Amino acid sequence: MAKTVIGYVRVSTKGQGASGLGLEAQQAAIETYVTQNDAKVLRLFVEIESGRKSNRPQLAAALAHAKRSKAALIVAKLDRLSRNVAFLSALMEAKVDFVACDNPTANKLTIHILAAVAEDEAQRISERTKAALAAYKARGGKLGAARRECRNNLTLEARQRGAKAAGEAVRSNADAAYSDLEPLFQDFQSRNLTQRDIAAELNQLGHTTRRGKPWNQVQVGRVLQRLQS
Question: What is the pLDDT along the chain (229 residues), one digit of tens a residue?
Fold first, then answer.
């Protein structure tokens, strides 16, 4: 096991998050495991979000921190991976090692298998949906633009709203990826470091950008703008 880890715990409701139910058990499992394996938790990320939603800001931040710190991601239970396609996809893309406290022998091969199963199920659902729609259309049913209520969906205003929403989603993901670095940036600013100096310190500490590249002053400036907005 890696000597440094980034913890990730999740519950589905705000009620659970406020009460600590579920979160405390997951945190206890992580703490027990790292103690037994002489490891250190650099930071614990807490997500209060339904398992059905794919947008996971805290997961994105945890993966980014783990990748930059060259640490492993640790979760309390393997079912947090197998029940969440978004988690699987993000973990695969980030190429971060992980530890599941309830199944410490699980490895990247396990993740590949889980992702393959999830992808196969998604494909089967897609095929069933397409077959049902084709049958509906064959019976005279109308789909898409053929339906009166859908004819005006692609107006200029609608396209502009879609572009705005897409842009906000990109910015949100970028903000989440660097949220764990905010304390570091606050320290850098308190020391009146230039953007070039900040980039040098981040590189020296072993941090990379969310795309795995070395920091430069332009990237530092962009992150500073996000954190100050």
Answer: 558 999 999 877 655 444 445 788 899 999 999 999 999 998 898 888 765 556 677 888 888 888 888 899 999 887 665 556 666 666 767 778 888 888 888 776 777 776 677 667 767 887 888 888 788 778 777 665 555 555 555 566 655 666 666 555 555 556 566 777 888 888 898 999 999 999 998 888 778 787 778 899 999 998 888 877 7
Tell me, yes or no, if 172 is annotated catalytic. Answer: no
Residue 98, exposed/middle/buried by CB under 10 A (0-12, 13-18, 19+)? buried
Selecting among 12, 19, 82, 89, the annotated active-site residue is 12
Do residues 78 and 113 make contact, with C-beta atoms less than 8 angstroms apart?
no
- Domain's final residue, options 149, 171, 202: 149
Other beta carbons within 10 Å of 93: 9
Same structural domain, 170 and 214: yes
What residues have CB less than 8 Å from 180, skipping those under 6 apart? 43, 45, 61, 62, 64, 65
Total tally of structural domains belonging to the chain: 3
Do 139 and 192 lie in one domain? The reply is no
- In contact, 181 and 223? CB cutoff 8 Å: yes
**The CATH number of the domain where 76 resides is what?**
3.40.50.1390
CB-based contact 58:8 (threshold 8 Å):
yes
**Is residue 193 domain-shared with residue 143, that is, in the same domain?**
no
Q: Which residues form the domain of 223? A: 156-228
